[in-house]
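Notes, p. 3: input format for complexes.
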Amino acid sequence: MSTTFLEIDHVSRVFKNDKGLPFVAIKDVYFEMKEGEFVSIIGHSGCGKSTVLNILSGLDRASEGGIVLEGREVREPGPDRMLVFQNHSLLPWLTVRQNIGLAVNRVMRQLPKQERNRIIQENIDLVGLSHAADKYPREISGGMKQRVGIARALAIKPKILLLDEPFGALDALTRGRLQEKLMQICDEHKISAVMITHDVDEALLLSDRVVMMTNGPEAKIGQVLTVDLPHPRKRLETVNHPNYYRLRGEVVNFLDRQKQIKLDRLKMKSNAVISMGSIEKTNLTIGYIPLTDCAPFVVAQEKGLFAKYGLDVTLSKETSWNDLAEGIREGRLDAAQMVTGLPLAITLGMGNKIPVPVVTSLTLSRNGNAITLSKKLQETGVHDLASLKTYIDSCQDAYNPALGMVHHASMHNFMLRHWLASGGIQPDQDVDVIVIPPPQMVSNLMANNIIGYCVGEPWNVRAVDSNVGFVVATDLDIWRGHPEKVLGVRKEWAEQYPHTHLALVKALLEAAQFCEPLENRDEIVLMLSQPQYLNLSPVYIRPGFAGPYRVNTMEAKYYKDFCQFGVGNMPSRKEQLWILTQMARWGLVNFPENHAEVIYNLLATDVYHQAAKELNIEVTEEDREAIALADGSTFDANDPIAALSAMPYSQFTEPVHFDSVKGFASKKVATARH
Ligand SMILES: Nc1ncnc2c1ncn2[C@@H]1O[C@H](COP(=O)(O)OP(=O)(O)OP(=O)(O)O)[C@@H](O)[C@H]1O
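Output follows (674 residues plus adenosine-5'-triphosphate):
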């Protein structure tokens, strides 16, 4: 049975602007909530929060899509959805009791008078207004009026409470008290509620989930954050919880990014698409993470290869893979260096996001990662996978030991999990696998927040040199020649700017060629070490890149003929299918029954072929052999479902249809409408 209580099913709302032209305020907003959940909607002013709430309440109608409450489409206002506004809207000539009574007597007129009076009194008591029950609105404070508004809404027992900035007009002290009161009522009575707020702390205090909206026009849900803080909540305990500032950071970062996008859009208006000859757009912003393997981007910039192919590129140093992914989703970035699973993750809407189709036209690097464990572990006798298992089995701590990796869709995550599983250690059960931005790995290891991590260079060498960690395995011990970084762009962008896309692939492919010979690498180390890129001494960059490799053998590869089945820089169907199975294996996404179509749409091999042809690079087609991993296991891409079912600890149950607009087999309004 479905646990969906309320479904905002792909809702769009088009208004007319003051010139009479259509204005798409919100587009394709999709969200589901469970009964008893408290959800906040947060976003910058004018993004469309009230539009969503008005459509939910039935005061406004969606131009497309609809609202389904307990399996029925709702189109009109009704007592099952009570709206509480900022300006309490009480009738001045009625007392507190009469204001509440008016609603109760109207909606519950079938109940005996005595019962109705009991309900009225119960709700007056609930919001702590017994002493003011017979006062008129002019005789009570703003906070008290707002409590009357809440009591009036709760008294008629709506299925869901809709709150439009309910405390926005109150002073800080009253606001704080009322938040606590509402939090207590919602906790005790398991109220389902949707609340609009501009206040991050208010959202975190009250909500089970925070829905963050992007800027309009065409505003969407950009991110949904689960607030996994314990209930019942008390303000002090909540803000002192170890996870509070991480959650707060997520919301604040999202809002900051939206602010930046607004500024960028204003800038872009005066800096519209610049085109030259057949190149539709010459001015590009490309996202990357300051790791050694961003080398092709740095080389293309420093050696003038972007310019050679008619591009004027700004390289945007991103702080995390998550920020970079958002940059692509929101259109702030034209293109980006991506961990190999990221194009699929964005395309599938992994992490509860709206799917945004992305294509990859180039594999930029292979290998280059290692698993580092803390020196403290080594001192207790851990030196390989088997002794790590012994250590984990004997762990008496209240919390699972944690290992870091850089993004859920990264090869670091998949390879780390594969390696652990191959040694009988079950990720998520025996150890936690958590996301940490690469530059923060070493400090987290030193602070004992994690017992180790899987990351690229220079962060393994750095831990070894600082004597805080040792390398227990490199990726050569897991999958020699695995794809590591790829180029990703939005599919829509690729269709809009095909010549720009081709020029970009040519510039990067030529840069990758330059990165490959070891004799070029010392020169590249100096480029990378500059403040605008890695901002790190060459001493730390050289060992993981130019050799001699101090950390076992970490052969980072950049140019063709280096992977076991010879596709080189061409995006590979087999590799992406392996990644897709890992995403499903670890419960990150459903496995699409139409996986062949999903992968076909993901790979822009035609662009790669054209670029290779123009650069006189021979293209080797992918064979149909199974991928061989170092632990002796193989992956047969011809039957991914069988392969997935046989993987140890697989969370896969059954394939689900994926639709590039609606996501994974989302229920259609049509089936629930009456
Ligand atoms: N009836 C309408 N006619 C035309 N445009 C409208 C109408 N209602 C809303 N809009 C526009 O739709 C967009 C979203 O408005 P909405 O009030 O939903 O935003 P909001 O996020 O609630 O803003 P705030 O936080 O400032 O209250 C805005 O650009 C607004 O100007």
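The mean pLDDT is 87.
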